[in-house]
Amino acid sequence: MDIFAKPWAFVRKDFTASASYKLSFLMQFFSIFISASMFFFISRLLGGTMNPYLKKYGGDYFSYVIIGVAFGDYLGLALKSMTETIRSGQVAGTLEALLATPTRIPTIIVSSSLYSFIWTSLRVVVYLVLGSLVFDLQIQQANYLGGLIVLILTILAFSSFGILSASFIMVLKRGDPFTWIFTTLSGLVGGVYYPITVLPQWLQIVSRYLPITYSLEGMRYALLKGYTLRQLLPNITVLSLFSLVMLPVGLACFHFAVRKAKSDGTLTQF
């Protein structure tokens, strides 16, 4: 079908480019093992000192942090993949030609980052399989359907912020402040490496305005505690609201950024 032809062409192009660097391709899998090993030994060092904070997630720090690291990758990917696509198109001189085709802007945005999301999903699977087989990651009672729903909503919510970031790059070319602020806040108060309950009360309030907080919490409830869809409903609802509000805003901003770059004659400048 034509609806899949253009996205598939983007995926095939990006896979061919990535696979051509075979050593880099393999090193990414090796880095997953190193990262998982590091957090496993940190969890051994901490012992039970964090158990009171981790009780609602099952009490195991390794299981807690490996979910955060694996699924936290989607945030960085959503913010960077689209901006990098815009940047490389400006440098290579292909962006103007691509935007001049009949291909709609949403199709270009989605297709250009599709391979990166597929690759990151594969990395997440490797994290979970490696954690389960080698490091005793406790996901035997996981609700995979609930986890999949949270994941889809996570990608949608994160991507909306990625589109906003790409809009900044389209206009400003360099020095996107949005990505720096959003990733810094998410890493600090989003619950990637530690529960937000260890934070001061005012930072806990800030964390409740970030989609990563609900994403990681929902994913941990689904995979580590086996929560039902009914129990996951608060996280699903908030992530759905983020997506419904921010995706149209992001697309509108990107349309505006493209029009402004064209009118200023700076579409291919970098």
Continuous helix count: 11
Structural class of the helices, strands and pairings?
Answer: mainly alpha
Low-pLDDT windows of residues? none
Major sheet details:
none
Describe the model.
The chain is an all-alpha fold. It has one domain (7-264). 79% of the residues lie in helices and 0% in strands. The protein has helices spanning 2-19, 22-46, 51-54, 61-92, 95-99, 105-134, 144-172, 177-189, 201-207, 211-224, 229-264. Helix 2 packs across helix 6, helix 7 (144-172) packs antiparallel against helix 10 (211-224) and helix 7 packs parallel to helix 11. The chain is globular. The relative contact order is 0.14. The mean pLDDT is 76.
List keywords for this structure.
79% helix; 11 helices; 0% strand; single chain; 270 residues; mainly alpha
Could you write a compact summary of the structure shown?
This protein has 270 residues and is mainly alpha-helical. Helices cover 79% and strands 0% of the residues. The chain has helices spanning 2-19, 22-46, 51-54, 61-92, 95-99, 105-134, 144-172, 177-189, 201-207, 211-224, 229-264.
Strand and helix layout:
Blueprint: H1 2-19, H2 22-46, H3 51-54, H4 61-92, H5 95-99, H6 105-134, H7 144-172, H8 177-189, H9 201-207, H10 211-224, H11 229-264
